[in-house]
Amino acid sequence: MPTEPEIAPVVDAAHAAPFGTADDYRAATERIRGAAAAYYEGTDLAMDDATYDALLARVTATEQAQPGWVVAGSPAQVVAAGGGVVGDVEHSTPMLSLANVFDEEELRAWAARLDRVIGRPAAGYTVEPKIDGMAIAARYVDGRLVQVATRGDGRAGEDVTAQARSVAGLPAELTRPVTVEVRGEVFMTDADFAEANELRTAHGGAPFANPRNAAAGTLRAQDRAYLAPLSFLAYAVHDLPGGEGLTHSAAMAAIAELGVSTTGGSAAGMAVCTTVDELVAAIASLGALRDKLGFDIDGVVIKADSPADRDAAGSSSRAPRWAIAYKFPADTRTSKLLGIDVQVGRTGVITPVAVIQAVQVGGVTVTSATLHNFDDLVRRDVRVGDTVFVRRAGEVIPEITGAKLDERPADAVPFAAPEVCPRCGGEIDRSQKRWRCTQGRACGATESLAYFAARDSMDIEGLGDKVIRALVAAGMVTDPADLYTLDLDAVAQLERMGRTSATKLLANIEGSKKQPLSRVLTGLGVRMTGRSMSRRLARHFGSMDALCAATVEQLQEVEAVGPERAATIAAELADLAPVIAKLTERGINMVEPGVTPYAERSTVVEGAHLPLQKPDGSPMTVVVTGSVPGLTRTEGNEAVERLGGKSSGSVSKRTDLVVVGDGAGSKAAKAEELGLRIMPSDRFAALLAADDAGESPALDDF
Ligand code: IVH
To answer: Which stretch is the leader sequence (predicted)?
Structure first.
């Protein structure tokens, strides 16, 4: 049975809920063990990191609350959760794990605890990236690399010397003939990961789901014909001659001198801090670099820099007390694939898009993700119903990197790629990875022009479906901007047109140039926006220039625009840039009347605007008379308030809106008489339903 993906936020033991029964606790330890085994095998990911961390936190919390339940070799007590492949290379000292914190408060608590344990304020800290790879210990004798072992169970690991010899950053020979042990992480850069998957699939293998998996699999592979490049960054050194008494930062600098790549020498760098405030700032700046490093980090590691502080703090059986991992939100989660949509872009590119059960990835709720292209989809054999890995790196559109084959429902069927363009039924050009409709931009032109000309968009009378089809067929228009350079004689010659109609049509097209920005935006059909959202965007940014220049973050200033929608809007606007430029050049208005230009506003004052609020934010006075479907009188009045209005019992000229339902009497008549704005009660019910559904409706739309 596939398990439901857990959307549980990452928690630490202090905040995690202990299990209620010893059986549940034991079952959780088994799940962790199974997941850890798969993790160290590097073949499959049984559980995403965040779920793993959350489960381990609950196990830890349970053990604190119920010491009597603790099972022997519990994953909360041992280093590799029982999953590491124990080889025959014994480690000189145990290879420990790290405890985690997830926010500033927990970090401060850790620092305070460290000060308490050592009996004085810690002398200083280092901050370095936490590389998401596989831990190894590498021994050099007289400057030569002689042995490399995985972490295994922390005491003994597997010999991977042969495979590790080609790892970048782990030289076969040091710059001086010293005998030393360096420890660090073997990982795959994003570029090498892409290459590794090309190689694997070219050899008929299934692609790796993510770089960590790829690194672990490659490092442990014995004799594959297609070994992919791996990298190494050291984070610790043991037995460095003359290294006693060196701070961590100095010892790492010393091994960098010997030719070994270190976390501090990577693009992420190492910060040395003296206060916790400095730590917080250093963590934030490393976090901001996360997407630009070219390799995955899952957090940062904070360590006491002074050897005296480390000695005083010591270690538990699982982790040192002088170091802590500050985990970033996981960038890979699992979720259920609910469906695969086939989308045709403006240029005719046909792409499969995954519709998934909502899941938090990298701190953002994700409901759809790219499947890249059909080749990739078929190669990965991702099927509807599968538990899939969803990865989101920074502001990039989330992607599906693979499916968990062991959780596939028995009845899952392979995805059938479309035979013809799903939009126009035309032929598909499959000569490249990105499939395209052979019609290119012309595919969908009729549809998008009709949307542009529609009543709620540019409202161009006379430009109906038939005329649009004729214009497209004659090759006179492919995008909306082409409408504004139409030639009267050519149009007049179209079937059933004639000079009079053509003249009228061109005048109407010309007239539409004055439409406000909100309507231009609506007409362009930006994905994930409709009429109300277009209006909101136009009101917020004031001009097309400001809107197109907005960052994903700035887009989120607009009500009901979350990270997912913001990323889509930004990508859509970038895609539309050529058409927007053409429209601007042809004199189409690109500003929203009455809105202060975005750049001239010092602060953004716009808050959540409710449908029954006036433009200045004050409540509209609303009278409900007669019955509203599905609501009692009180509920009707409550609904008015929920929508931002103020309900009143009597109609006067100060009334802003009168909702009229069945059985309305004199109040409705009075409203008519005073010329007040009247709304039928079924429209009001629809407005309320839209608001309940979180659509942020605008009154004018109902
Ligand atoms: S220090 C005794 N520093 O994260 C302390 N570990 O989740 C040893 N890791 O087992 C760990 N980057 O495999 C340290 N900069 C870094 C690291 C790092 C990645 C790994 C390491 C460790 C695991 C704990």
So the answer is: none
